[in-house]
Specification:
Helices cover 22% and strands 28% of the residues. The chain contains 8 helices and 23 strands. It binds zinc ion. Zinc ion binds next to loops.
Length: 362
């Protein structure tokens, strides 16, 4: 495939495939300018596409393709560079000595002075650490839904839209008892579990019931590559159900990026179902799973704190595990509500608020 060297007037250069350059012509014939959508179909060009001429002047690079003329400004090229690097924001991995990023509910308001900046700081902290705490959230039922809905749609599940976590003899999981909850991610029983969760404490009068979070990406990064590979390729069944709902899926515990770093973790001792013991690779899976479980369960990996009424914890559901210690139900009430959403919606809101140009001016 032909490659072209583009040189702009200020000396910026880029070597790009000819097909890429034709595919990304920003003109109003090739793109729907108002929405930034592509109209041009690359299949209408030959694989061995080559330009008739390439000319640089102070306004940009002009390419004559024979049947079409394209003009590429430096701003166009820089906006593409910014956009294509958006997903590369490096997560800040943390251990038990972590300081949980904390914000006040009243300051996260775009309409008050400084509110937009504080909101950007909140979304930055959440997206880079995978967890943040907001205090002073009104102690009303449904407030977790109202809070999250400002930036992201709620992901409703068959068990409900807003979930009550309290002692409930009719409850569908161990969270509805006073037992300890080991660190876990929620709804691993979906191929794509909810990637965001907001937990809002309404009442916490009990003895015990302290909260903890674990950076699953950091902990799992202590595994060696062969352990990561088996955990990323060996499917495991998970199930969560009640009298009227059924969720079940079979999926590996990890999804890895091409560089071996972790993109998605699912982990729930409670909800993992027995694996067919005849499955090829089950011994290697259990060796790696035992190692990962040992690391995740170690108290020294867990950042512990107590959620006060009005505290709301946002959690990256594919990264950060959460749990709580056992409590004595006879000592008072404990009531938490939570909702699910998609992490990407908050990540993209951060991008929008940070005023990074989303698209090249044309
Ligand atoms: Zn064009």
């Amino acid at each position: 495939m032909d490659r072209l060297q583009l040189i702009w007037a200020d000396g910026t250069t880029a070597v790009v495939p000819a097909l890429w350059l034709r595919d990304n012509c920003p003109c109003s014939h090739c793109k729907v300018v108002a929405t930034s959508e592509r109209r041009k179909l690359i299949a209408t060009e030959p694989l061995e596409l080559a330009p008739v001429s390439v000319v640089t002047d102070t306004s940009g690079v002009t390419v004559d393709w024979g049947n079409h003329v394209s003009h590429y400004t430096l701003d166009w090229y820089r906006a593409i560079q910014l956009d294509t690097r958006r997903h590369l924001a490096t997560p800040s991995l943390w251990g038990p000595d972590f300081t949980l990023p904390r914000f006040r509910y009243s300051e996260l308001d775009e309409s008050v002075p400084g509110g937009r900046q504080r909101l950007i700081e909140f979304l930055s902290a959440f997206t880079s650490h995978g967890v943040a705490c907001v205090s002073g959230v009104p102690i009303y039922q449904g407030e977790s839904e109202r809070f999250v809905s400002r930036w992201a749609p709620i992901r409703e599940l068959p068990f409900g839209r807003v979930h009550d976590v309290l002692v409930d003899p009719m409850g569908y999981n161990i969270a509805h008892t006073a037992e300890a909850l080991p660190p876990h991610t929620d709804f691993p029983s979906y191929k794509w579990p909810p990637s965001g969760q907001a937990l809002h404490m309404l009442i916490n009068e009990v003895v015990g019931g302290d909260s903890f979070v674990v950076d699953g990406w950091r902990v799992a990064s202590e595994l060696d590559r062969s352990e990561l590979d088996i955990l990323a390729s060996f499917p495991v069944p998970f199930r969560q159900f009640d009298h009227g709902a059924e969720t079940w899926t079979m999926a590996p515990l990890l999804r890895l990026r091409p560089d071996g770093s972790i993109e998605q973790l699912r982990f729930s001792n409670q909800l993992m179902q027995p694996i067919d013991p005849a499955t090829t690779g089950i011994d290697r899976f259990y060796e790696a799973y035992h190692h990962l479980s040992t690391l995740l369960l170690a108290p020294e990996q867990q950042h512990r704190f107590r959620m006060q009424p009005g505290d709301l914890l946002v959690v990256h559901g594919h990264r950060v595990l959460h749990g709580r210690t056992a409590y004595e139900a006879s000592t008072g009430h404990r009531h938490l509500q939570d909702v699910y959403f998609e992490f990407e919606d908050l990540f993209n809101q951060l991008h929008r608020l940070s005023s990074i140009p989303a698209r090249a001016p044309v």
